[in-house]
Design brief:
19 helices; globular
């Protein structure tokens, strides 16, 4: 039976063995069992989310604000838009373009984030702590989004495994403490990815297509390089159309990818004060890493530098993720195809390739946490399958709890005790004592 059958059509020898496909045992559950199955997973996820939120909030007073770096620029942008409105954008572009010292910091082209931060500041105030709380809010919202969509596409209680593993990602927990855009961008990219899966499942739905296009456009407005998401999305459509022979309308999908760009381009031009300032900003953004000493020393290297960073952050989860990817490929060669896992695999492979041409910083690859955690949960569930569903559930729960504890320890070691700010490879290797903390 195909792995993409609906949960209602799939059956399995073990309840846990079919978690990620929504399979159920043949025997009909009692009323009490049905209620437990329905309410227990959301309660477990909510409890894990509350614990993660408390952990992050408790560590917030010790989080570095780094107002002399990127957070200072975001704070400046927030205050200017809050005070002068959207008409301040051309002046911000001009200031950034003419100040060479600013080129190592983020440009004002992060329009989506800047506008949201200004609206956030209108309610809570305009200071660095408020920006940190915006990051935390985006992190918590992202965890909920991932859980709800995992619940929709993978079923319960598989969504708990995916949602809890993602929530306790030390990378996401750590970035949520900082006045940076990474948590917010991660939310936009994850939501866009889930909405794309919705479109693929029902290509005829105009509402789903519009929602996806709006999300994609806003994500690119939030960070320009998010346009690279089109690469795995388009690749996946081609896989579905020419390999799986699914009735994908390539013209419609091409328009779906192109229309957000057509809509947001005038927004960029108006915000920059014209096409010339926008082209100048684009040129500086693309060329500055080659002259940025920080980027050269700490962000160069081969494509697998991202894998090393993820290994340093979550070694066991990363091993499970690679194991899950390998198992997926093995079953794919045997003729078993899972649309959801294929999308995650396509995203991982394509983004690793695309990001290899830019500065290597794991902050830029936060979306990869989603496929890593999904593949890790999937292979873990496959490993603990047993004839007894209760025994399997206990083993899976213990394993998830252990992985979360290990991730929490790395969060404490690097982000809290080490007052981590930018998770570059050298800093992560020092935190793991792989290289000397101080040169000998």
């Amino acid at each position: 039976m195909s792995a993409i059958d609906s949960p209602q059509e799939q059956r399995s020898e073990s309840e846990l063995g079919g978690l990620l496909t929504g399979r159920s045992t043949g025997a009909g559950p009692s009323v009490s069992e049905s209620r437990a199955t329905r309410f227990l997973p959301p309660i477990l996820f909510a409890s894990a989310l509350a614990l993660a939120a408390w952990t992050v909030l408790a560590s917030l007073p010790d989080a570095p604000q780094a107002l002399d770096a990127d957070p200072g620029f975001y704070l400046h942008y927030m205050r200017r838009i809050r005070a002068d409105g959207l008409s301040a954008f051309p002046a911000l572009f001009d200031e950034w373009n003419t100040d060479m010292d600013s080129w190592i910091c983020p440009p004002p082209s992060r329009i989506g984030y800047i506008v949201v931060s200004a609206l956030w500041g209108a309610v809570f105030g305009t200071n660095a702590v408020v920006l940190q709380y915006l990051s935390i809010a985006a992190y918590l919202a992202n965890a909920i989004v991932n859980y709800l969509f995992a619940r929709r596409h993978f079923g319960e209680p598989a969504a708990v495994c995916i949602g809890v593993l993602w929530t306790f990602s030390p990378l996401m927990m750590g970035l949520s403490r900082l006045a940076l855009t990474d948590s917010f961008i991660a939310l936009c990219m994850c939501l866009t990815t889930w909405l794309f899966l919705e479109v693929v499942d029902r290509p005829e739905s105009r509402a789903r297509r519009i929602l996806f296009m709006a999300a994609l456009g806003f994500t690119v407005l939030t960070k320009e390089l998010s346009a690279l998401l089109v690469i795995p999305y388009a690749t996946f459509v081609l896989i579905e159309r020419f390999w799986r022979r699914e009735p994908m309308n390539l013209v419609k999908f091409a328009l779906t990818f192109a229309i957000p760009g057509i809509v947001i381009l005038p927004i960029f031009v108006v915000a920059a004060g014209g096409a010339s300032p926008l082209l100048q900003t684009t040129r500086i953004v693309l060329e500055s890493p080659s002259t940025n000493r920080y980027a050269i020393l700490l962000g160069s290297g081969p494509w697998f530098r991202y894998l090393i960073d993820f290994f340093c952050l979550s070694p066991i989860t990363m091993l499970l993720g690679i194991g899950g990817f390998s198992l997926f490929v093995t079953r794919l060669r045997a003729g078993e195809y899972d649309r959801r896992l294929m999308l995650m695999a396509t995203i991982a492979v394509c983004l690793l390739f695309a990001f290899s041409f830019f500065t290597k910083n794991v902050r830029y690859a936060v979306l990869l946490e989603l496929p890593i955690r999904i593949f890790a949960a999937w292979v873990l569930i496959e490993m603990v399958k047993a004839k007894s569903a209760v025994r399997s559930a206990v083993l899976c729960g213990v394993a998830i709890a252990l992985l979360c504890w290990l991730d929490w320890r790395m969060f404490e070691v690097y982000w809290v005790d080490g007052r981590g700010y930018d998770p570059v490879t050298q800093a992560l290797l020092r935190a793991r004592h792989i290289v000397p903390v101080r040169p000998p």
